[in-house]
Amino acid sequence: MPLSEIKQILDFIVEIEKLKDVYRKTRPVGLDRYENSAEHSWHVCLSALMLKDYANEEIDIDRVIKMLLIHDLGEIDAGDTIIYASETQAIKDEEETGVKRLLDLLPEGKAEQYMALWQEFEAGETPESQYAKAIDRVPPLLHNLHGNGHSWSKHNISKEQVFSVNKRIAKGSEKLWEVLELELENAVEKGVLN
Amino acid sequence: MPLSEIKQILDFIVEIEKLKDVYRKTRPVGLDRYENSAEHSWHVCLSALMLKDYANEEIDIDRVIKMLLIHDLGEIDAGDTIIYASETQAIKDEEETGVKRLLDLLPEGKAEQYMALWQEFEAGETPESQYAKAIDRVPPLLHNLHGNGHSWSKHNISKEQVFSVNKRIAKGSEKLWEVLELELENAVEKGVLN
Question: Is pTM beyond 0.95 here?
Fold first, then answer.
């Protein structure tokens, strides 16, 4: 029954709106408030599209974008965790349960492919997921670089942590990491990153 | 020079972040604050993906998503206008100039395809743009339907206006409009829409 299926999807659309109320650990450039995970998701999708030519391997950008559209849905139930907190199995499990709960709102037969896509992103083993994960790390870096390192200093993140966590960007795009590494080194020189 | 191109794209990524500070005329379900155009853009992309099987014509969903990722960029310079305000040529021109300014930040040769995609969305003549435009109208309806018609009453929007503007959803998906029309009729019965 298409009409009742559409109603189910509209309920899903209302439910995922809660991602607009999940707050992250950085402030968008020029804004006083913290970023939420819904606007972040838009930002990384468009960033991925514009940077696609610099991925290490040939990627299917349409799969990357779908991955990034759903990559943070688990935070609706689990909340956002700063990347420098150890990504524990407990957090990952809670997110996975949350994504499953949401996708199960959809009409039968729709959940599986998106669950698989979410798991592929999390595993980070395919070219698409490695590139998507690289892009996911870019906005918080830009927020700190253009925002006096506000999140690094607030959460006592050392330069060693910043370099060690973010050098994983190179797994998705070596060229992108090359540019960002230089920007981070400049931030160290300016005393924004210690 | 890939590295300087990447720097240009990073500047673009920072600049489009301003869309997170463009506020719309409805509040997300359950939230006290108004919605911004960046989180709205994410919401419509994911909504379009989940509802794609109900488009009137066969569509390329990946083109639809790209369209919706960029469809509101013009608001960074022009601001958001409620759909019930006449969509004047002056507003459209201002948005187009704004989109062009942003895309021109990208390395040479990248702007044209996205400008064309934005214009295709605006013109609303292809199956993809008709479907994208239909989906773009869904969240404000859901916000009002689940939020006591807050934006309709605040802006003195009559039920005649709501039906006449939103029946255009049928141009992209007749089935979706069938469901929403019923929901709107229920809202009229309950006195939420007058």
Answer: yes
